[in-house]
Amino acid sequence: MKTIVFSGPSIAESEVLKLAAVTHAPPIRRGDLAGAEDYDVFVILDGEFGQNMSVSPKEILGLLERGKTVIGAASMGALRASELDRSGMIGTGWVYDYFRRCAVRRDADVALVYSPFDFKPMTVPMVDVEYWMEQASAAGLIGARERARLLKVVRDIFFADRSLDRLMDAARRAIGGDMLDTLLACCGGAIPNVKAVDAAEAIRLCTSLTERREPGQPVKDI
Fold first, then answer.
1. Other CB atoms closer than 10 Å to residue 146's CB: what's the count?
2. pLDDT in tens, 80-96
3. Are 136 and 147 in contact, with CB atoms under 8 Å apart?
4. Which has more confidence, 219 or 139?
5. Helix, strand, or coil here: 163?
6. 98 Cβ neighbours under 8 A, 6+ residues apart
7. Treating both helix axes as pointing N-terminal to C-terminal, what angle do 177-185 and 164-175 enclose, rounded to 10 degrees?
8. Distances (CA, A) of 39 to 63, 71, 80, 82
9. Which of 75, 124, 210, 217 satisfies CB 3.0 to 4.6 Å to 110 for a cystine?
10. Is the pLDDT of residue 129 over 80?
11. What helix, strand, coil percent values describe the chain, rounded to 5?
């Protein structure tokens, strides 16, 4: 089965190809799916939404209606999967679950700035911070009030301006240096990159589903 993976800052092409024998494409934008009709499985991870129009739910629904398998995770893919899972799109990972739980889904929660040359992230997406705080809360390292204060000051920074240095300065002012150091230590000294974790999970899921496919049968989630 022919599979195409759209990714950029969440997971590098080299990492994608280590995990699966697929075709790699850069972050998806509106119109890209029309040029990939001969693929059977589509894994949407990263996508554009500022510099170009984002892939629309209608485009993905068109694939699903034609019997294609579409998996979404990590970033734009997670957002679209949370909107279309009842229509057959397969979502996976923490970011997908986060969007499913949200009363209001915000594109900005997965937005970041990345290098146009190698797709490396240059700012920190809000979902990484939300995941970090969820893990810290579960470990009993931060109270509800301090967590809310930190999330507010970080969210108040426009996504395109949320560099790691600026985020750390804001967090230090909000909760203090000692607590910030404790929260970082619980995650190996850095804010977790949940997008990368989810992206790898989606590719492994894709491989698992296609390997279990019976001849002549469409791919189905379990």
1. 18
2. 999 999 999 999 999 99
3. yes
4. 139
5. coil
6. 78, 109, 127, 130, 131
7. 120
8. 10, 13, 19, 22
9. 75
10. yes
11. 50, 10, 40
d(CA 151, CA 148): 5
The radius of gyration computed from the CA coordinates of the chain, to the nearest angstrom, equals 18
What is the average pLDDT score of the chain? 92
Q: How many CB atoms lie within 10 A of CB 25?
A: 21
> Whole-angstrom Cα distance, residue 149 to residue 29?
35
Neighbouring C-beta atoms of residue 103, cutoff 10 Å: 4
- As a whole number of angstroms, the distance between CA 17 and CA 4 comes to 11
The two structure tokens encoding residue 134: 């969820």
25: left (phi over 0), alpha (psi -120 to 50) or beta: beta
Read off the DSSP letter of residue 86. Answer: G
Alpha carbon distance 5, 75 (integer Å): 13
Q: Which amino acid is at 22?
A: V
**Cβ neighbours for 222, distance < 8 A, ≥ 6 positions apart:** 209
Instruction: Enter the pTM of the model.
Output: 0.91
**Which run of H or of E encompasses 131?**
helix 126-138
For residues 88 and 64, give the distance between their C-alpha atoms in angstroms, rounded to a whole number.
7
Model pLDDT for residues 145-183, shown as the tens digit of each residue:
999 999 999 999 999 999 999 999 999 999 999 999 999
Structure tokens that stand for 2 in this block: 């022919």
* The two structure tokens encoding residue 191: 């804010």
Tokens of 129: 């911070």
